[in-house]
Specification:
This protein has about 120 residues and is α+β, with helices and mostly antiparallel strands. It is built from four helices and six strands, in the order E-H-E-E-H-E-H-H-E-E. A three-stranded antiparallel β-sheet has the order 2-1-6. The chain has a three-stranded antiparallel β-sheet with strand order 3-4-5. The chain is globular. The model has no long low-confidence stretch (mean pLDDT about 80).
Length: about 120
């Protein structure tokens, strides 16, 4: 299902490799959905431990090193822009430690159980 001006509100602290204080800053933010209007099952890696190349990522999936997550897909750069407005320090952490997620056409996946669909 394609999205139609939908977003998700983060209602719980997302799990992940970012420090707890950074992950806590996502709570209550509303992030625009850019790919799908429903939660999708995806293979994901940690933001700090993700393999660097596409081939290494495929190999990681084959070897069972990726986590299967049901979640909402948001564009990383747009999500960091939203985060910047409420917590410049948390946005700076992302830009310094996980800059690949701030690049165009890169996505973050927020677990479905920490999200609430808005605009449905």
């Amino acid at each position: 299902m394609k999205k139609a001006n939908l977003s998700v509100r983060i209602i719980g602290v997302p799990p992940g490799e970012a420090p707890l204080w950074v992950r806590e800053k996502w709570v209550s933010l509303e992030l625009p959905l850019t790919r799908y209007a429903t939660a999708k099952e995806c293979f994901t890696f940690g933001v700090l431990s993700q393999p660097g190349s596409c081939l290494a990522q495929v190999w990681g999936v084959v070897r069972g090193r990726a986590e299967r997550v049901t979640g909402y897909v948001v564009e990383g750069a747009r999500a960091i822009e939203v985060l910047e407005r409420s917590s410049p320090q948390a946005a700076a952490w992302w830009r310094e430690h996980a800059p690949q997620y701030v690049a165009p056409k890169r996505y973050l996946v927020f677990h479905h159980y920490v999200c609430e669909l808005v605009g449905a």
